Amino acid sequence: MLCTGVAVAAIPLAIQAAETLGPTYPIAEPDLLEEIQAHLQAKQRSGELARLQREAIARANRSAVSPRPVEGLMRTERARTFYFDPTIVANRTITGPDGRVVVAQGQRLNPLDQVDLPQWLIFFDARDALQVRKAAELLAKAEGRAKPILTGGSYIDMQKKWGRPVYFDQAGLLTRKLGIQQVPAMVTQEGKRLRIDEVPV
Q1: Domains of the chain: total
Q2: Cβ atoms 124, 132 nearer than 8 A
Q3: What pTM does this model have?
Q4: Does 69 fall in a domain?
């Protein structure tokens, strides 16, 4: 009974303490979505929203026509030849739908055991006239068996100039994977490896 009495006696004290804290007010916080909508409407009325849209479209077009150049590459000053072994080691066992093991964990796989590299790969920076000229020489030497791949410049402009498909090494995925540091560079197959020649201009 003592506990109950103490609790009942404490109620008036709690009420009195709450009353002495000060007046309370209802929460008057603006709705976030309404705020965003009002902000966008204001930008639309001022014409700023249309300007931002035009700038975004222009940036996207520039990026599509002339992607960001691959970083860390330099023009080939000294010839270098090296090799890339595309062999990988399976990190897990892969089975077919019937449960039969297709690839065992730890098995070494080389894609060149199954398919050949059908074309030479010619990497170059189209912003450099000397590299463009050297790439054209390498393409002629390949007699139609090469694929030009840019590391900088506009592949659209090069396609118009050469009248053939030209590709771009997006984000440097291929040059980094192959260990290319200088361009122009030419990739060909030699046995079960890829031979990379960084060719001086």
Answers
A1: 1
A2: yes
A3: 0.67
A4: no
